[in-house]
């Protein structure tokens, strides 16, 4: 992995991972309120799970690191996009906490795998990881959640995550043709965010979600 691509992946994977945390916080407060308590609980679980994921990552390095990273990001995409919907449907903080732990463990895999793919550039990888987390902490709670809402933000971040996950294996046949698809989906739903939020609000009020 080249120097530039390693830094770019580190930035965007960190941005997506922390974005999912903020999305779960928003979903949790939507079902039970208590924003400060929920925030502290979710941040604590997510941070603890990052450490667990980092430790577990050492046990899977027998495979190709690039392949493992792709599988991790694909799993993270599924949990991050479907998780908030499951939380709203179940109205359960236990399920929310389980999904947060899963998100944290998967996110904890990222840095060790990126270190392994970017030999002797650990300081750059971790620097861009921190910058990505910083950008997520500004953009998600202060901009996207307020402007386009929970549903569209989830889809947007999920599509961004999936785009970079697919780009990891872009040389494998038809996969390279799939890369633009999540980008277009993310842009589309960002423009039509009001309709998404109307649907989610209606389903929530009807107790479907």
Task: Provide tags for this entry.
209 residues, mainly alpha, Growth Hormone, Chain: A, 85% helix, globular
| CATH class descriptor | Mainly Alpha
Instruction: Provide the structure class.
Output: mainly alpha
SSE string, helices as H and strands as E:
HHHHHHHHH
User: Hey, roughly how much beta strand do the residues contain?
Assistant: under 5%
Overall pLDDT: 82
Helix content percent band: over 70%
Number of strands: 0
CA gyration radius, whole angstroms: 17 Å
Overall form: globular
Largest sheet geometry: none
Question: How far apart lie the N and C ends?
Answer: 42 Å
- Output the CATH topology: Growth Hormone, Chain: A
Low-pLDDT segments, ≥5 res:
none
What is the count of helical runs?
Answer: 9
CATH-derived architecture: Up-down Bundle
- Return the domain count: 1
What does this entry look like structurally?
By secondary structure, the protein is mostly helical. The protein has one domain: Growth Hormone, Chain: A (Up-down Bundle), CATH 1.20.1250. The chain contains nine helices and no strands. The longest helix is centred in the N-terminal third of the chain and has 30 residues, at 3-32. It is globular.
């Amino acid at each position: 992995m080249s120097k530039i691509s390693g830094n770019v992946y580190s930035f965007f994977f960190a941005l997506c991972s922390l974005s999912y945390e903020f999305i779960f916080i928003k979903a949790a407060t939507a079902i039970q309120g208590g924003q400060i308590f929920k925030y502290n609980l979710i941040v604590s679980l997510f941070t603890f799970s990052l450490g667990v994921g980092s430790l577990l990552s050492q046990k899977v390095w027998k495979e190709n690191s690039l392949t493992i990273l792709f599988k991790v990001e694909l799993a993270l995409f599924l949990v991050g996009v479907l998780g908030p919907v499951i939380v709203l449907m179940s109205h359960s903080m236990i399920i929310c906490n389980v999904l947060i732990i899963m998100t944290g463990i998967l996110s904890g895999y990222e840095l060790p795998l990126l270190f392994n793919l970017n030999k002797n550039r650990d300081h750059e990888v971790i620097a861009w990881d921190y910058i990505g987390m910083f950008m997520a902490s500004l953009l998600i709670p202060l901009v996207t959640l307020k402007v386009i809402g929970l549903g569209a933000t989830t889809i947007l971040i999920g599509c961004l995550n999936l785009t970079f996950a697919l780009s990891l294996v872009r040389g494998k046949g038809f996969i390279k043709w799939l890369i633009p698809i999540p980008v277009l989906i993310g842009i589309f739903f960002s423009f039509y965010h009001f309709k998404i939020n109307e649907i989610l609000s209606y389903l929530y009020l009807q107790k479907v979600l």
